[in-house]
Amino acid sequence: MHKIEWTDKTWNVITGCTQISPECDNCYAKAMTKHLQGMARKELEKKTNLKCQVCGFDFVEHSVVEEYTEIAHSYNDDYQVICAGDCGGLEPHKAFDLPKYYLGWDKVVFHKEALDDILDKKKYPSGSKIFVNSMSDTFHEDISEDDLVELFNIMSKRQDLIFQILTKRANRMFHFLSWVLPRTGCLTDEYLDKKMKSHIWFGVTAENQEYVDKRIPKLLKLKDVVNEDIKCFVSIEPMLSEIDLTPYLDKLDWVIIGGENIPNNPNKARLMRWEWVESIYRQCQSKDVPFFFKRWSGINANRKDLRWYIERCKEFPRD
């Protein structure tokens, strides 16, 4: 998987997503999920000649049982390879969970079994920056509030890490953090008021002025309602137009800029003009806001006449 420069590691408890704005058109996570789904299907094929431990029948190859169809969200455990036999009138016998990416992009799945991964200090060493759900959107509408509470509860157990959460669903993020989470009682007031701000950063993605103006105001309201010191950032990747961030820079803690990258077809990548990037760079400099440049877009990525001083600017939020 491509290294994301502004983080140290990823932690994917959720897979699958729904595309909701122009930046999603050539989504890297969708392409990567398709690749991982192929690998997951091959992994499952290796298990299809196992026998049911209850009745001895073969498992039905690639049969999938979907339970709880009336609720919006789904767990990976709801999807199973099942037995072809009777099993004495019992419910279809659960043989094994499907591999993580088996269900692909169009099914949004909360993988409860992945929650405790973050407690592994060898895999996630103290001090690391962790991009949460790089293969989905944490605040996707198919993820229940109960699931989100579990996610935040487990993050509270690793206050030695910095969690970076990016979403296109700023309204749901605001509602959850300002209204739902404080009323669950699962996290102390001391944590919510004083500790969460130090190790969870909240961000939105926005590709043009329209989505900047839709998402950033709701993001920055977290500072008014949740905590004035909470870290708020914007990722403008892919950058698809000229953008004015000046109305928001007094409260933004970090700005990430990047062009569209389509590894197998760079000519298809939409252009990010250098003057758009330089404008954002100058805007950030004028307000002393940390600026992180990720890459140029597509066929422009290796041009030598682009602004080297921008390319070298890879700043992070300040303590």
TrEMBL record:
A Pfam short name: DUF5131
Entry superkingdom: Bacteria
InterPro entries reported for this sequence: DUF5131
Name assigned to this protein: DUF5131 family protein
Provenance organism: Helicobacter japonicus
